[in-house]
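#onboarding

Welcome to the new folks! Below is a worked example of what a typical request in this channel looks like: someone posts a single protein sequence, and someone else replies with the predicted structure as tokens. Don't worry about understanding the tokens yet, we'll cover that in week two.

Example request:
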Amino acid sequence: MNLQTPVRMYRVSTPLVVIVGPTASGKSALALELAARLGDSGRAAEIVNGDSMLVYRGMDIGTAKPTPAERARVPHHLIDIMDVSRTANLAEFQGLARAAIADVRARGAIPILVGGSALYTHAILDEFDFQPSDPAVRARWEAELAKLGPAELYERLRAASPESAARIEPGNGRRIVRALEIIELSGSHIASLPAWRYALDDVFQFGLEGSRDLLDARIDARVEAMWAEGLVDEVTGLLLVGLRDGTTAIRAIGYRQVVSFLDGECSEEDAMAQVKRATKRFVRKQLGWYRRDPRIRWLPVEDPANPDSIIAGLRWGNRD
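Example response:
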């Protein structure tokens, strides 16, 4: 034996699989199939929810939440952990998701993060620090927004930080309020998002993509199915347990349009059409955000070989 031969150090790698893509692209179904394939190969896998709306109890139909049978088949994390009256925030979700991923890895299983929002995926995976927040300050600015409207507050933001104002749409009252809150607390506001730099190890991102016509057809079918399954009744029940009291859940696509219908502001047919249009706009925005991340490997929607392609793209085992 040559005593001068250096000793090689090894570690066991557990990949973090991330499945992203637009609404109705089939992310949840792919995650379930992938988990099953990994299990068949002797590697246990668990799913971590990366969608901000699946955390709410009772929001099942409108979010296309995995069914109890699907959750019994593969362990899921961060589903049904909050009442609809609670206001979820990105910083809290980041902490919960990273803790869930670490827990799955600590037990030797492969975590599969299924993302519905590019911002949430970005915050979970990458170096992403949060600017200061104060509920009292935000409440004061939200009261100003309700009294004066977004145009007036936008002018105040433009006077305080022209660079931030240039990156925010004048009608986006929520982002305007947040920017003014940060400026009041810290004296400045950074409007751009952090760079694509992983804070977690061994991340493998895969995205689902399809033609506009295909995704539009899937969205139309999905919305019509939600109505047939009882979305209106679901929202009616959620209103009885505090849906209006929160500021996050009630903004979800599908829920806010049904609330408008129940309030007599539009017909049921108009509400359904609005949900379809809003979902399609959101899909365009989702794809625009995800396309900016060069680390995502794109796969075609509905390709039965997708689970095999993902497994082939992973690396694990002994590594230097």
